[in-house]
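Hi V.,

You were right to ask for the full record rather than a summary. Here it is.
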Amino acid sequence: MKKEIAVIGLGRFGGSIVMELHDMDVDVLVIDSDENRVNEYQEFSTEGIIGDSTDEAMLKKIGIDNYDNVIVAIGDNIQASILTTLILKDLGVKKVTSKAQTAHHGRVLEKIGADSVIHPERDMGRRVAHRLVSSSVVEYLEVSHNHSIIEFSANQKFENKQISDLTLREKFGISIIAIKRDHDIIVSPDANTTILDGDILILIGTDEQLGLFEDKMDRLK
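Predicted structure:
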């Protein structure tokens, strides 16, 4: 059975989610107060609604509570974002994912019941910063308040060594949870796995632990 997802707010962020979901063959309902935006994403959605997402009666009428996930991607009106999130939870929507503009906005969304809060601008800033500071970091993802995952391009000091020889857990407290090799992914590699030229190591640890690791690797270049 196909997943059904609704996206409220069709700015750049909301619009990009709609197109990605369409490519993943997900049924998408789009809602925006701007008719032009709804028309723009018509070909990527199964249904488009022109309306005010703070109108509880309208949301109830279209059966918003039947959707597996509702994305509140409103970017220019914090009050509407908060009120929409609150109404969706009151209507019994299974999962509400809301976009936050600021840290304070995010805390409010969490307090009123958003199941997931995303900070796209902040997260993108952090990802870019990590790439700028460490040329070996090819990707960065925050997974909790103080834990993150990085994709690290193995340098010559890693090549042809087994994971056990690297002693990353002992030295830094971080773990290799997967290895990207060509077009394959080695999940939960064992200690005897040998690192090869071109491998991308997927590492998890606290922000402090990963920071120390990145600093050490940059100094060794």
